[in-house]
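Sequence only, no structure available. Ideas?
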Amino acid sequence: MRGDPRAPFLRPGTPVYLSSLSHLTDRNLRRILALKGLEPRLGWPKPGGHVAIWGRSARTGARGETLARRSGAKPLYLEDAFLRSVLPGKAGGPRHGITLDRQRPYYDATGPSDLEDLLATHPLQDIARGEALIVALQEAGLSKYNATTAPPPAIAPGYVLVVDQLRDDASIRYGGADAARFDAMLQAARDENPGREILIKGHPAARSDRPGHLGPDGCGPCAIWPLLAGAARVYTVSSQVGFEAILSGHRPHVFGQPFYAGWGLSEDRAPLPRRQRVLSAAQLALGALALYPVWYDPFRDRLCEVEEVIAQLASRARAWREDHQGYVAHGMRLWKRPTIRKVFGSGGLSFPRDPGRAAQATGRPILSWAQAVRPEMAEGRAPLYRVEDGFLRSKGLGAALVPPLSLVRDGTGIYYDPSGPSDLEDCITRAAARGASPRGRALLARLRAGGLTKYNMGGRAPDPAPVGARKLLVIGQVADDASVTLGHEGEIRDMEALLTAARAANPAAHILYKPHPDVEAGLRPGLTETPLADSIARGADPVACVMAADEVWTLSSLLGFEALIRGRPVTCAGLPFYAGWGLTRDLAQDLSLPPHPAFARRAARPDLAALVEAVLIDYPRYHDPVTDLPCPVEVILDRLESGPPTPAPPLRLLSKLQGVLASQSWLWR
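Reply:
I predicted one. Tokens follow.
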């Protein structure tokens, strides 16, 4: 953990007395306190300890303050951090962070808080980190609560965004405002912006028994960052949206006294004279997001940095946004269905006999295994998403029915079919335009340092080549795999042709042939023996084969991408997803063939870290088998390194029969 500005008064072992039964039953909260080194306790507080006080409510807040005052203990104010969960409250799942403040809650402007002191006195010198945090939040579309959708097309840019809040919220009363201030804010927005549309943004937790102040919400559950991007001006009393408006480049008009006002970044209608320092948006983000809260990693059960929380919460938010409408599923074999339900089923998932009719009846999109898509589905009116295994899949073979830890969901095409565009091509193009992030570069470095691949079967080292020989690795594939049948180009269409071409181009090289593990296991058809190679890497570790080679040749194998990651030159005879971006030698371009349309679509030139970020962060979905939550790729790397459970014996037996079972049409409905 980086430097903690609260360290002087939160020493390890400090007792924290719980002042509410809700604290006692909140395991997530108690765990964060314990990991912080504090000791949650019941009973009458002792001098030198702290009393945990949640918020400023008349019931729990007043009780805790009275308990602290009478016992001589010190108050410790707890609140949710600025990135909490997907849904509000307990429905949002485990919180990702809290704030601890010895003076008062951060939204209480009646006196200084620890956050205010931090912003006023801390050097806040790591500007680059603050700027990176702002970019990461915007790209992930994160706010405190994240059950949000894109703004509807009817909301045209140029509006004035007026932010409503819940009635009786403590941040209003203790932020120097009241209900009348909302009416004044709305009137000021109208008077100061004649002719512009006024758009009211309600609180995501507003409901009939706890409404806002300004009437109907004009945005619904819209993501805040696109709303801010389209706004001409922003008006708020004390909402967190004002903080996010500053981070998005606005200078919001603020009618209360929230923590982000008074630092030279807002138009303050109720100035707070004690705040005199002028901050940049990056410094404000650094203090409020990186230094002040205590962040929690539920996947590894430890405290962490805010950057990890952004990645984790982005994964959970993405899953909700993509899946909340539910799906009509198709083409999922029986053994795959439990995993599909876990990964995509949070909004509901059905397996009807006629998916097209069910999609029309329910209004749900179709979720189909990519190879099972029927022409009428692609041409139908219901949205269609194709599903396939991801690129860091499991510790064990898919053909052996080991459940996947990653899957892809593609609404345009599918990554292994170059005949048309895919969402992955869009991800790579965007990554090339923005450049790799620090997270993408860190992922590339971790993959290079480790030995993880798609299946992570391990194996022995390949037989050594003669001393001084140039070593060429030719990668075997499953003969009927869709990436082979759809991804070839020209005359090189199978392993024999690939080996022949590799030998013709490299007559003096020592050729090592690595059969596909599914083929070696006898689960799928393909080439295991060939006189065209100098040696066969039977049972060999794929990464060890790559590292032993001077160059790698492939049709369209994922191992070609893994060879790129490890710095090996790669020659592609086909058109895998990683070809055509300037990082591989592409025989389809070298040969005198009409250029394939895929090369025109792949005109961007990402560096390797940007390609890795698009392929392993932006495109797939990951699901943690331990917590049963959507997660980022870094968690899956941890799980693969430690080893997820292997399939039960009945699944091993079933894997031997799946070729027969797959021919039964009822398995694909």
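The chain has 26 helices and 25 strands.
Hope that gets you unstuck.
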